[in-house]
Structure formats: structure tokens, C-alpha cells
Write a sequence for this structure.
């Protein structure tokens, strides 16, 4: 018999709000978080809009001590961890620290620190580089700083499967609980907005607005022409159900099943059929012992790019068959943008809110129907609905696909 | 009943040999792979040596038109996974009939691509798409999975210098959980200017040679490489009469939660104890420890102190060697290559030496198998790895007995 795994706390920082209740308010109100970038100079780019967390201030959450040398990703994820720990009410002590872990998805979270360190060596010479910046150049630095700050000693893992990284980090955490390797895991993801990541998505042509028009994040809409890049961090406190109940915690939702699958035929523009995403969804449903008709809402990974939105729509039609039209599917990326490795954790945080508040967040900015995307995308306004089971998806252009099923906690 | 997991194939790209046979031969001969770095200019660095895999010719493994989309760590990962699957006598047709996954580790997978982009940005030149496609960290496992059409579970872990052990450990879990029949696992890192500069600024790099556990050791040696292993459920391996090197008996992870770069004796002690507890073994059972053994003053001192705590009076009787004395520190790849060493030691009952050992250090008074390989029955081996962030992983391997 598999162990029950529950979510007992959530910490979120996103372009629309900080903290889980404010985040849920923003999503159900359909607020968007897109504005001109202030973190770096965008004059050499054709696009200057992103989902930046402009009001981010780690001081009230983390205090002044030890903050100076931390990069933005690390500050974001440590802040999310603080919010999540407080939300869950868990106390970390010498007695339980070895049964607690940290599992974080990030891929470009340290890219800015890496690149700045390297460029400093090139410009000023290797002997002039500040050694105190070197620890920020490892990809596991954000996750490790969470353990250091909150004294979590069981394990610490960083997962870098691109767009799928934070769903994979949650699956990894859940496996560790199932295998008795941990009772409690802080699982989530983080990406910071920076010049280097922006350059990558810009020069590869992924961004909306490359044609000079106003950037527009409108998943499933016929007008969609690319993503709006964003940043964020979310941590979910995953906990062995029995452990949670024994300490009097009130679970927010249950992690019922998960799966991932690679797609060797993946194409970076998502022109492929999507068999990997289909397998990932099938694995997650099987793991949850559910059928497609048991899913009440799909929190989609579609991000306003031509290929991915069409691919996910087609796969949902294949998996859900005649039930596809009756299963609402929305993309919160219409409000918070594409935060890459953080996206899955932000979607899970949204899905928990949907279950708790009995509301489905909308796909905002939806205007023109695309004949290739004809499902119920919950356009422009949140919808009241009691949800029992929610499916959350992620798909990476290099081939990884992941899915997680959450359930209402009775 | 959990499935048992065995190792059936090994693939190596290293400064001392391409392929597991050449690698093992060099290790037993105590050959050093250290030479002057040529990948980037070290004129203004304090040191100039490193462990580059100069024998590696990517084009011998990968068609030209695909190479241009791969960073060096990805090239080495694909090449060593080809060697590992060949060694395991796995054909592409057979692999496509099973659920096969990939689990890969790295410290800074895309380092060379990032460095090339940085150079272009400084000189205000256009950054081309071929280079940008190499930037994501997950390109190495993705390229392996494409090569062998693996549609099973897929995992990329970036836990710095312990990444190889983390990748192997989770692949082991995935097979025991029955989510895959075979996992192609390991880690790779190309030699990196960023790491070279950083460790130089930490005064952690030895000027000439790497001397783990020596009283006069002067630091680590930056290096590169890839180690890939084929992990397989025992029943599948036995059914297809595969060559079996060793069995995975368990692992332990821990986090120091103390400091980004200073190892903690408490953290690595806990890590070894967890691994041994899971494997159901006691200190008397361990025949060989493949040390993290980077050759820095602090690391070797902390590791020896932790070994003393875990093994008590037995600590002087267990052979403990560091192949980093020959290879240097291959970053994320290190513990994958060291797991390969453990598998070969279990198979052949020989232990590779710690070379460059000259002067005993009272703080490291272990049996480090100085300078000469040793014939020694190895039934159980412990593979230690520690990383920045205090991310620790120890793996227990044992001789396969059906």
C-alpha cells in the first residue's frame, strides 16, 4: 500500500502576487503581471516586456543577515521556503531535520551569476574576480541555501529538466516520501529574470513581440505568437500524510499521482505529436488510480506559443476523448508568463488554490478562436466549480514531459 | 518485494583512457592524466595544469551535423553512453522493446557554451542559434535519450560535484519502483574556465599534481570527463544473460546545511551511515572506500575524520583510495567515474592506488593504497561524494551473487 502524500504549506512569489492567498486572489481576478523590464537594459532586444517581480523585497522575509552575497534566484527561493514553512506550521528541530529534505527544480536559476562571474574574469582578469561570488555559480546554490538557512539536513537535490524541472522536483520529493527516505520535503522551483536567459529566449525566437507588435500572452488564442518570459519561485511542503496528521497539520490537498516520460521525437518548436506528454499524463493517472473522466480541471502548460498550445490541446483530445470538451483546461501563464523551471511549481500552487476555493483560474486575454484549439479554456473569467481531481502538466522542448495529479483533501 | 538492481555496462571518457578497459588499465598502472590546459588561456591564472580528456575525439562517436548543437559535456555524455550500452551488449532494437530511462548529473553542463556566449557578448558580437541551443543544462540527458530512443523516466540532477552519485541513486530507485527496466545513468562535465577561475581564486588548485591525503597536498586539479553506467533490474539482466559487474546495495544522501563550500564532518558522517544502514551492512563489511579525496587540505581532513567516526578502530584497515590523484576532479562526472571504479574493483578484486603519495599526514592516517594498485578481495565498496552546498551522497555497491 502506497503512502499518502499531502501538501501542508505553500510559499509563492510571482509577477502577480507574493504569498499564496494573494496569489490565488490575483489569479481568480485574472490580473496579469507583465510590464517593461527594469532589471537589465533591454535596448538591444526587440522586446522589453516580461513578467518581472518588481516589488520583490527579501528583507522582511529573510532579514539582513547573510543576504548580501545571495543572487536573485536564491533570494526568491529562500523567500518562498520561508513562506511555505510558516504556512505549514512545521518546526524544524535537531530531532526531525534528518527526515526532512529539499528538492528544487531550476535550470537557468544561476545563469546570471555564472555569466557575470565569467565575464568579470574576462574583463578584469582571473585574479581580480571576487571569490565570494563563486559559490553562486553552481546550479544547486539556490536549493543549498534553503537548507543552510532553515537547517534542513535530510537531503538536498536540484533538478534541471528545463520546463519540467519543478514538477519533476515534486515527483522526486514524493518518491522520497514513498520510499521512507523522508517525512517532509520542501519541493518546488525557481527561475530569475536576467539578461542572459532573456537573450536566449529572444535570440531563439520564443518571445512574443519579435515582430515589433505589442507582446501578447494569449494561450490557445489564434493571435498567439510566443511567450512572455517571467520569473518566480514556489515551494510546496510535501508531507507524509500520517506525519502531517500526527502533528495536527491541516492538509491543503493530496498529491495523488505523478509520472514523466521522455519524447525522443521532440522538436524544439513543439511540431511533434506529443506522445511523451501523452505517456506522462497516462502514467500520472495510472499512479493515481484514476481515469480521464475523474479529472475535473487541467492546469495546462500551454504558454502562448504556436506549437505547444496546439500539441497540448491535441493530446488532451486524445487522452480524454469525448470528455475533452467537458474538461475545463486553462493556462495561468496568460497571467504570470512563462517562468520555465519554476512554472510547474507555480501551476501546482494555483491548482491547490482552485481546489480550495472551488474556482478555476481563467485563461485571460482570450479573444480569437483558433480552429486548431477548440477546447474549454475557461476564457477571461474564473469559474465556480467544485474540483475533486486536478491534472497539472509540463512539457520541455528538449523532450521531457511531466504530469502531477492533485486531489481535494477530504 | 523490491527489485534488485545490477550494473551491466560501463562507458568512460577520461584523460587517462577512452572506454572502460583503457581507463582501468591506466588506473592500475597509476598513470596521471594531468597536463597543461589548452581549452582556454591560463596565462593570468595562478596555475596552468588540468585533466583534459585530450584523447577524446567526439567525431568518432557523433555525426558532424549533430555535434554543432552539443556542448562538450553533452558530447562526452553521448559518447560514453554509447560505450556503456555496447559494453552491456545492448542493441538499439532490444532497447526499444523495453522501458528505458536516462538519469544524468552535472555541475555546469553547458559551461563551454556559456563561456563562448560570454566571450561574444564582451566583444559585442552576435550570438548564433547553434550556441544557444547548447545552453540548457538538460541537453546531455536529452541527447542520450534521443540517441537510444528512450521514452522512459528522465532525470537531470545538478548537485555539483556529487551529481553522478545522485543520478545513479535515483535511477536505482526508479528501477526498484518498477518504473524502468533499464536506466542509462551517469554524469559529465567539460573542463570549464569558470570553475578554473573560481577554484584558483579559492587557492584550491594544486600547481603541478594532485596529492590526496599527502601531508604536503596543495589542492585539487580541475578536470573533465564522463562516466556512464547501464543499470538494469536483476531479473532482466539474468534473463538476457548480460555481463554483471556489481549490484547496487543502497545509498544515502545528506545535506550539511552549514556552509556553501566548507565540508562538514557531521554531514558526511551521516551520509555514509545512511548508505550503510540502507544496504544493511556494518563497518566490518566494507572492503574498499572510493574516497571523494579531492586533494585539498580541508576536504581530505574532513573526510578522514568522518571515516574515523563511522568506522571506529577499523578505519586504518580498510583500503581507501582517490582516483582524483590520477584524473583530477572531473566535477559532476567524478562520482560516476568512481562508481565505475567500484564496479571494476568488485569485478576484478583489485584496487587502484592513490598516486603522488609521498609524505604521510597524521590527520589522514588511513590506508590510501599509496602509489601501487593492490590485489584485494572486494565484496562491498562504498563510493563517497561531496559537493558545494553540502550536498552529500554515498553509494554502496556489492559483488553480484545471484
Amino acid at each position: 500500500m502506497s503512502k499518502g502524500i499531502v501538501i501542508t504549506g505553500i510559499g509563492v512569489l510571482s509577477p502577480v502576487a507574493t504569498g499564496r492567498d494573494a496569489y490565488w486572489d490575483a489569479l481568480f481576478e485574472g490580473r496579469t503581471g507583465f510590464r517593461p523590464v527594469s532589471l537589465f537594459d533591454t535596448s538591444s532586444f526587440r522586446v522589453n516586456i516580461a513578467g518581472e517581480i518588481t516589488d520583490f523585497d527579501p528583507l522582511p522575509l529573510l532579514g539582513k543577515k547573510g543576504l548580501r552575497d545571495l543572487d536573485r534566484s536564491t533570494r526568491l527561493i529562500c523567500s518562498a521556503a520561508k513562506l511555505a514553512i510558516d504556512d505549514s506550521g512545521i518546526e524544524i528541530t535537531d530531532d526531525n531535520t534528518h527526515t526532512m529534505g529539499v528538492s528544487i527544480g531550476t535550470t537557468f536559476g544561476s545563469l546570471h551569476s555564472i555569466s557575470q562571474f565569467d565575464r568579470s574574469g574576462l574583463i578584469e582578469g582571473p585574479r581580480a574576480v571576487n571569490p565570494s561570488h563563486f559559490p553562486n555559480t553552481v546550479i544547486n546554490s539556490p536549493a543549498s541555501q534553503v537548507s543552510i538557512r532553515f537547517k534542513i539536513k535530510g537531503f538536498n537535490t536540484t533538478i534541471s529538466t528545463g520546463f519540467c524541472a519543478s514538477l519533476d522536483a515534486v515527483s522526486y520529493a514524493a518518491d522520497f516520501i514513498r520510499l521512507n527516505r523522508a517525512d517532509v520535503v520542501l519541493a518546488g522551483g525557481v527561475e530569475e529574470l536576467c539578461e542572459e536567459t532573456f537573450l536566449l529566449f529572444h535570440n531563439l525566437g520564443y518571445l512574443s513581440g519579435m515582430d515589433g507588435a505589442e507582446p501578447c500572452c494569449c494561450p490557445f488564442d489564434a493571435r498567439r505568437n510566443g511567450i512572455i518570459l517571467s520569473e518566480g519561485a514556489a515551494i510546496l511542503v510535501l508531507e507524509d500524510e500520517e506525519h502531517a496528521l500526527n502533528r495536527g497539520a491541516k492538509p491543503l490537498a493530496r498529491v495523488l499521482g505523478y509520472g514523466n516520460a521522455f519524447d525522443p521525437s521532440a522538436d524544439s518548436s513543439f511540431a511533434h505529436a506529443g506522445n511523451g506528454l501523452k505517456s506522462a499524463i497516462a502514467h500520472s493517472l495510472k499512479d493515481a488510480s484514476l481515469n480521464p473522466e475523474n479529472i475535473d480541471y487541467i492546469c495546462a502548460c500551454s504558454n502562448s506559443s504556436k506549437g505547444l498550445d496546439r500539441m497540448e490541446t491535441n493530446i488532451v483530445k486524445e487522452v480524454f476523448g469525448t470528455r475533452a470538451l467537458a474538461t475545463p483546461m486553462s493556462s495561468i501563464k496568460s497571467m504570470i508568463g512563462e517562468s520555465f523551471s519554476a512554472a510547474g511549481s507555480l501551476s501546482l500552487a494555483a491548482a491547490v488554490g482552485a481546489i480550495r476555493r472551488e474556482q478555476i483560474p481563467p485563461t485571460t486575454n482570450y479573444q480569437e478562436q483558433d480552429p486548431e484549439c477548440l477546447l474549454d479554456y475557461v476564457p477571461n473569467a474564473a469559474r465556480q466549480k467544485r474540483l475533486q481531481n486536478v491534472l497539472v502538466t509540463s512539457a520541455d522542448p528538449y523532450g521531457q514531459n511531466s504530469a502531477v495529479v492533485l486531489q481535494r483533501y477530504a | 518485494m523490491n527489485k534488485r538492481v545490477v550494473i551491466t555496462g560501463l562507458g568512460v571518457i577520461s584523460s587517462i583512457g577512452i572506454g572502460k578497459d583503457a581507463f582501468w588499465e591506466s588506473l592500475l598502472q597509476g598513470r596521471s592524466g594531468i597536463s597543461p590546459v589548452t581549452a582556454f588561456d591560463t596565462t593570468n591564472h595562478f596555475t596552468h595544469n588540468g585533466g583534459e580528456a585530450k584523447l577524446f575525439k567526439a567525431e568518432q562517436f557523433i555525426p558532424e551535423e549533430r555535434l554543432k548543437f552539443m556542448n562538450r559535456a553533452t558530447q562526452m555524455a553521448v559518447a560514453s553512453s554509447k560505450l556503456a550500452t555496447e559494453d552491456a551488449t545492448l542493441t538499439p532494437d532490444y532497447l526499444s522493446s523495453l522501458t528505458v530511462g536516462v538519469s544524468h548529473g552535472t555541475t555546469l553542463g553547458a559551461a563551454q557554451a556559456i563561456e563562448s556566449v560570454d566571450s561574444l557578448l564582451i566583444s559585442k558580437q552576435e550570438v548564433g542559434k547553434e550556441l544557444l541551443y547548447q545552453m540548457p543544462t538538460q541537453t546531455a540527458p536529452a541527447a542520450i535519450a534521443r540517441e537510444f530512443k528512450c521514452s522512459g523516466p528522465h532525470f537531470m540532477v545538478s548537485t555539483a560535484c556529487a551529481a553522478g552519485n545522485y543520478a545513479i541513486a535515483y535511477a536505482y530507485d526508479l528501477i526498484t519502483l518498477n518504473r524502468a527496466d533499464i536506466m542509462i545513468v551517469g554524469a559529465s562535465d567539460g573542463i570549464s574556465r569558470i570553475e578554473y577561475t573560481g577554484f584558483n581564486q579559492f587557492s584550491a588548485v594544486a600547481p603541478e599534481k594532485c596529492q590526496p591525503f599527502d601531508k604536503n597536498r596543495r589542492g585539487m586539479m580541475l578536470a573533465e570527463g564522463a562516466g556512464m553506467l547501464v543499470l538494469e533490474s536483476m531479473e532482466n539482466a539474468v534473463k538476457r544473460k548480460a555481463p554483471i559487474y556489481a549490484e547496487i546495495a543502497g545509498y544515502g544522501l545528506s545535506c550539511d546545511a552549514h556552509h556553501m563550500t566548507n565540508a562538514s564532518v557531521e554531514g558526511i558522517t551521516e551520509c555514509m551511515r545512511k548508505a550503510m544502514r540502507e544496504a544493511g551492512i556494518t563497518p566490518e563489511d566494507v572492503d574498499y572506500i572510493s574516497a571523494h579525496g579531492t586533494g585539498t587540505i580541508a576536504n581530505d581532513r574532513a573526510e578522514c575524520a568522518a571515516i574515523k567516526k563511522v568506522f571506529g578502530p577499523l578505519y586504518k584497515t580498510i583500503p581507501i583510495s582517490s582516483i582524483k590523484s590520477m584524473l583530477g576532479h572531473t566535477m559532476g562526472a567524478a562520482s560516476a567515474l568512481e562508481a565505475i571504479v567500484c564496479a571494476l574493483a568488485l569485478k576484478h578484486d583489485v584496487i587502484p592506488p592513490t598516486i603522488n603519495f609521498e609524505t604521510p599526514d597524521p590527520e589522514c592516517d588511513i590506508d590510501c593504497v599509496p602509489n601501487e594498485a593492490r590485489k584485494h578481495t572486494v565484496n562491498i565498496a562504498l563510493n563517497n561524494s561531496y559537493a558545494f552546498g553540502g550536498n552529500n551522497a554515498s553509494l554502496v555497491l556489492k559483488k553480484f551473487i545471484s
About this structure: The domain at 257-407 of chain A is CATH 3.40.47.10 (Peroxisomal Thiolase; Chain A, domain 1). DSSP finds twelve helices and 14 strands in chain A. Chain A has a mean pLDDT of 97.
